[in-house]
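Before the break, one more example. Copy the sequence into your notebook; we will annotate it together after we see the structure.
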Amino acid sequence: MKKRTVAKRTIAQENVLLELYREDISDLEKTLKRLTEACSQTLDVERVSVWFFNPEKSCIHCSNLCCVHFIHGIPIPGSFQT
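Here is what the structure looks like once it is written out:
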């Protein structure tokens, strides 16, 4: 990547982190939804998910899944609670 491209991407990522830092995190579901959507957009990936262990740490479950689909080149985000 060119240095200018890397610099622009780094600045964009820092701005997203600052926005997330300022948000109210008292509601876990809303926080995870916002976090996965921000990660998907910032990292330019179609799927981001958050997984947690059960209390016994014997299995994991998906707490939030963000899928971004593209329709005619336009990203259409969607979040799913499990």
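The chain has one domain: 3-81. The mean pLDDT is 85. Try to locate both features in your own notes.
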